From TrEMBL, chain A:
Residues 357-391 form a coiled coil. One of its GO terms (cellular component) is phagophore assembly site. It comes from Danionella cerebrum. This is PX domain-containing protein. Residues 55-74 are annotated as: Disordered. Gene3D superfamilies: Arfaptin homology (AH) domain/BAR domain, Phox-like domain.
Automatic annotation (TrEMBL), chain B:
The keyword Transmembrane does not apply. The lineage of its organism: Eukaryota, Metazoa, Chordata, Craniata, Vertebrata. InterPro entries: AH/BAR_dom_sf (IPR027267), PX_dom (IPR001683), PX_dom_sf (IPR036871), PX_SNX4 (IPR034902), SNX4 (IPR034783), SNX4_BAR (IPR037430). Keywords: Protein transport, Transport. GO terms for biological process: positive regulation of autophagosome assembly; protein transport. This is PX domain-containing protein. PANTHER family: SORTING NEXIN-4. It comes from Danionella cerebrum. The keyword Lipid biosynthesis does not apply. One of its GO terms (molecular function) is phosphatidylinositol-3-phosphate binding. Belongs to the sorting nexin family.
């Protein structure tokens, strides 16, 4: 990081567009298919290759030439202070929540908006509290902008457009709640990131009135300049990178491996949820059967009723335990499945930057004329490369830390939840035993301690 | 609470797992055991089905077959108490011989709710459990079931004194002949025919009708319970086993991580342990299912007794009816009045009456028949009365036994669940610790 700072003092790169590394974020983020754990898993969509070059019109309305990208001096200094800010937990000066989903019906469509509440002490904000309503599209836009502006930084994923194949109802409660939770997480991750949270796009997202947001979205680079970048991007990705530094190859390998593991965990957890659901359905029949039996009996009627009651209560506990898995563990794992796509995309973009550089260097070597201008361009590309590599390096470390914390707490929560489940069931059965023994002794006040 | 005859002998009544007995409870158990021993064969003899073995041999159609034999061991109780522990007497029997014994008892003691045998084929299985009769788990559970059967018979006041039963326990070779010599099979055949026939009883004892209905309900509800349990067991098996995948993936994942590696790896081991634990859990649950199954089959035995009551009642009513009509005929013949319309009456009106000699002969015959009939009715009355008395006493005994046994089964189930919960708590607490070290 210190090196970066030093570099920044020597050279202030001229503003350049990064649109050749933009990512069309309109498509639903792809999910890779892991090694098969069980054939009964949900069929996840084929990996939509995250194309590096934009497909013109599919690019979300975003101004990739917005001066508020990371090339501004202020944000560079922010990056330099990256490490230090991270350690200081009390430095959190922006709090954001996503809640209160509401449905809106227009002539053309029905959609959901979420309330986004911001509380902050940051000076660049006009006020200390903001409340706006945003829809999923707006989140997509924000992420797209951040991606364009910071191609080699790791941005937290958004929830997918449609979670399950064949899920017809887009607006059922569970789906909306899951999405809300993920959007909340997303915004908080952005807010915690020193670079992302300092950008204009983020600020506007949090504060702008609907009209403002729309007009801001419409600002963007001219079509022609985007075309030029697209062509270069295609060329770059076709060429491929020649001398990738080992550290980035390692990152790539890690991303692959991690992707497999996290997808596997996700699938396993989904399978557990399915089995548990089916177990619960069977268990639900035990209570009523015992109750029916109890109606045929005399002396046995009471213990049978008691047992029926105990089983019903166990069913309730099982239902709750299952809820935790479905509402918390599975979405948490899923988010990291989506993360792996971001990782791969980021590494790919870094590679492309390097490929660009290599091509330029070749051009310099082979061309006889225009050497001056080529050399200038080469310098620019070198700077860009250096910048991108450093950005990625530090964000990688940051991401790994966060990943570790997130997954650790997800697993701890699950373990906790399971312990609680068993403890509650234990209590139910112990109380059943107690009641039966009290019956046997014919004296409910016998002390069994 | 009065204990039943079944749980005595070598079985420790307090077989309720790892839950502690209070002093008063264990004292109660001891008292009851002694009480039981005092009333039956088990006072003098210890009975067990100790082992099972595979045999091959030629069967009735001279084909090679493999079957299982069970070792029945008997030992005088006194010897055990004196701690001299001599070698027990023993003999081998196969399942079909047990069936033969039970059929004999059914026919010979129709008023008794005869203890059932363990199932012939594994039913209500969940997928992991083999339905194969040769499967060692099945054989083991059958061994326990057969022992239970013998103990129940041995603790029954009437059945335990039966000679054929005694020799079943002690005479290996000649026993089969002895059974057949009793001629019970002829009785069996006629009984079966009679029971399968539909007949209407005019004045059935209400209690038996209710009992029969109860038997139907019991059978239906236990079947349902066993079915549901089997399906639930199957699913629970799936839940636990899938957790084994966590173990594998955590282990693989730990290989690519630096700081997280150890925590993940050890958490993975606990997941493996969790997945493995379901086998024992479900094995134990199988015992609970077996207890239910015993009463499923008992329901059948109960219904059989009620059915037999109907038969005896029917036979009594038939005899009484016959007698009644004979008496009526006698009256008509004697007084010359025809009270009921009959073809004979008509023809005699049309074609003239019989000769005095013919009438005399007829009257004499009727008198003899009426005498016989009255004897028969008396007999049947006594029979029926005895049957009702005996059967009802045994049904009362059965009811108490059932209430006690099933209550205990429920308690055992709860204890099993508690054990399972404790294991779960331990595993997940361990896993949590490992996750904390991630």
């Amino acid at each position: 990081m210190k090196l970066l700072g030093a570099m920044m003092q020597i050279k202030r790169p001229r503003f350049y567009s990064d649109s050749n590394n933009s990512v069309p974020s309109e498509k639903s983020p792809p999910v890779s298919i892991p090694a098969d754990i069980s054939g009964e898993m949900l069929d996840l969509d084929e990996d939509d290759d995250l194309e590096v070059f934009s497909k013109g019109t599919s690019l979300t309305d975003g101004n990739s030439l917005n001066p508020s990208t990371q090339t501004s001096p202020a944000s560079m200094i922010n990056q330099y202070k990256f490490q230090e800010e991270e350690e200081d937990a009390d430095a959190k000066d922006l709090f954001v929540t996503v809640d209160n989903p509401e449905s809106h019906v227009t002539a053309i469509e029905t959609y959901i908006t979420y309330r986004v509440v911001t509380k902050t002490t940051r000076s660049e904000f006009d006020s200390s509290e903001f409340e706006v309503r945003r829809r999923y599209q707006d989140f997509l836009w924000l992420r797209g902008r951040l991606e364009e502006a910071h191609p080699t930084l790791i941005i937290h994923p958004l929830p997918e457009k449609f979670v399950m194949k064949g899920m017809v109802e887009r607006f059922n409660e569970d789906f909306i709640e899951n999405r809300r939770r993920a959007l909340h997480r997303f915004l908080n991750r952005i807010a915690e990131h020193p670079i992302f949270s300092s950008g204009d796009d983020f600020k506007i997202f949090l504060t702008a009135a609907p009209g403002e947001l729309i007009s801001h979205k419409k600002q963007g680079a001219g079509f022609l300049s985007r075309m030029g970048e697209t062509v270069r991007a295609v060329a770059a990705s076709v060429r491929g990178v020649r001398n990738r530094p080992d550290e980035f190859t390692e990152m790539l390998e890690y991303s692959e491996a991690f992707s497999q593991k996290i997808s596997a965990l996700h699938k396993v957890t989904q399978r557990i949820s399915k089995e548990q659901r089916e177990y619960l359905e069977e268990l639900k029949e035990c209570g009523p059967t015992l109750a029916l039996w109890s109606s045929c009996e005399e002396a046995l009627a009471e213990p049978l009723r008691c047992m029926a009651d105990s089983l019903d209560r166990c069913c309730q506990e099982t239902e709750e335990q299952l809820k935790h898995i479905n509402d918390e563990l599975i979405p948490d794992l899923h988010e990291y499945v989506l993360c792996t796509d971001t990782l791969k995309a980021v590494l790919r973009r870094r590679d492309n930057i390097q490929a660009d550089l290599e091509a330029k260097a070749e051009a310099l070597a082979s061309k006889k004329t225009e050497r001056e201008s080529i050399r200038d361009e080469l310098e620019k590309l070198e700077d860009r490369q250096e910048w991108a590599n450093n950005a990625l390096r530090s964000d990688w470390t940051r991401w790994k830390k966060i990943m570790r914390t997130d997954l650790q707490s997800a697993f701890i929560d699950t373990a906790d939840n399971n312990v609680k489940y068993y403890e509650k069931c234990l209590a139910i059965w112990e109380s059943f035993l107690h009641s039966q023994r009290a019956e046997a002794e014919g004296n409910k006040n016998v002390d069994y301690s | 609470m009065e204990r039943t005859m079944a749980d005595s002998g070598s079985e420790d009544i307090a077989v309720i797992g790892n839950t502690d007995l209070t002093p008063s409870e264990s004292q109660n158990n001891v008292r009851n055991t002694m009480f039981e021993k005092g009333t039956n064969l088990l006072k003098r003899m210890e009975i067990s089905v100790a082992e099972a073995e595979k045999r091959t041999g030629k069967n009735a159609v001279n084909m090679q077959e493999t079957y299982t034999v069970y070792l029945i061991e008997t030992r005088p109780v006194d010897a055990v108490q004196e701690a001299t522990s001599p070698v027990p007497d023993s003999l081998w029997r196969r399942y079909s011989e047990f069936e033969l014994l039970r059929n004999y008892l059914l026919v010979t003691y129709p008023y008794v709710v005869v203890p059932p045998l363990p199932e012939k084929r594994a039913e209500f299985v969940w997928h992991k459990l083999s339905a194969d009769n040769m499967d060692p788990d099945f054989v083991e559970r059958r061994r326990v079931g057969l022992e239970n059967f013998l103990l129940r018979v041995a603790s029954h006041p009437a059945l335990s004194n039966d000679k054929i039963f005694r020799s079943f326990l002690t005479e290996e070779k000649v026993w089969k002949e002895t059974v057949f010599e009793t001629g019970f099979q002829a009785k069996a055949d006629s009984r079966i025919k009679a029971l399968n026939a539909t007949f209407r009883v005019k004045n059935p004892d209400k209690r038996f009708a209710e009992m029969k209905h109860y038997g139907d309900e019991l059978q239906s509800v236990i079947s349902q319970l066993l079915r549901v349990r089997a399906r639930a067991a199957d699913r629970l098996y799936g839940v636990y086993k899938v957790h084994g995948n966590y173990g594998r993936v955590f282990s693989e994942w730990s290989a690519i991580e630096k700081e997280m590696g150890d925590g993940l790896q050890s958490a993975g081991h606990h997941m493996d342990a969790y997945a493995a634990s379901i086998d024992d859990i479900l094995e134990e649950e199988e015992h609970y299912a077996d207890q239910l199954k015993e009463y499923l089959f008992y329901a059948d035995a109960l219904r059989a007794v009620c059915r037999k009551h109907e038969l005896t009642q029917y036979e009594l009513e038939t005899a009484a009816q016959d007698l009644c009509s004979k008496k009526q005929q006698q009256e008509e013949l004697a007084t010359g009045t025809v009270r009921t319309f009959s073809l004979k009456g008509m023809t005699s009106k049309l074609f003239g009456q019989e000769t005095p000699e013919q009438r005399e002969a007829k009257l004499k015959m009727l008198e003899a028949q009426i005498e016989e009939g009255e004897e028969l009715v008396k007999e049947r009355n006594v029979e029926s009365g005895e049957f009702v008395k005996g059967a009802w006493a045994d049904i009362e005994r059965f009811k108490e036994q059932k209430d006690h046994d099933l209550r205990e089964a429920l308690i055992n189930y709860a204890i099993m669940q508690i054990s399972m919960c404790k294991k779960g708590i331990q595993v997940w607490n361990n896993a949590k610790e490992c996750f904390s070290k991630m």
